[in-house]
Amino acid sequence: MKSTDDSFIMLNNRPYPFKDGATIRSLMTENNYDFPSIIVKINDVLIDETEWSATCVSAGDNVEIIHVFGGG
């Protein structure tokens, strides 16, 4: 039996249920992250946009999907 920690990832500093085979792109779709400028990191490693559909998330990962916007 898996421990509770193995059944979650951290998504933007909040526990989020882990799904085997989940990718960055699938997380973005599930959470309606459809912004013009986004930065994605997994465990503090920047993931290029061209890799979002192919990059799988593992249980326990720290995923940051950051909406970048300008201001002044």
Number of helices: 1
Could you report the average pLDDT, rounded to the nearest whole number? Answer: 91
Helix content: under 10%
Q: Which structural class should the secondary elements be placed in?
A: mainly beta
The CATH architecture term is: Roll
Number of strands: 5
Distance between the termini: 51 Å
**Inertia-based shape:** globular
How many domains? Answer: 1
Overall CATH class: Alpha Beta
User: How much strand content do the residues show?
Assistant: 25-35%
- Corresponding CATH superfamily: Beta-grasp domain
Quick one: biggest sheet?
5 strands, mixed
Elements, N to C (H/E): EEHEEE
Radius of gyration: 13 Å
Ranges where pLDDT stays below 50 over 5 or more residues in a row are none
CATH topology: Ubiquitin-like (UB roll)
Q: Reading side by side through the largest sheet, how are the strands ordered?
A: 2-1-5-3-4
Walk me through what this model shows:
The chain is 10% helix and 31% strand. The chain has 72 residues and is mainly β. It has one domain (4-67): Ubiquitin-like (UB roll). It has a five-stranded mixed β-sheet with strand order 2-1-5-3-4, with no helix packed on it. Strand 3 and strand 4 form a beta hairpin.
Summary tags:
single chain, about 70 residues, mainly beta, Ubiquitin-like (UB roll), 5-stranded mixed sheet, 1 helix, 5 strands, about 30% strand, globular
In a nutshell, what does this entry contain?
By secondary structure, this protein is mostly beta strands. It has one helix at 24-30; strands at 8-11, 14-17, 38-42, 45-47, 62-67.
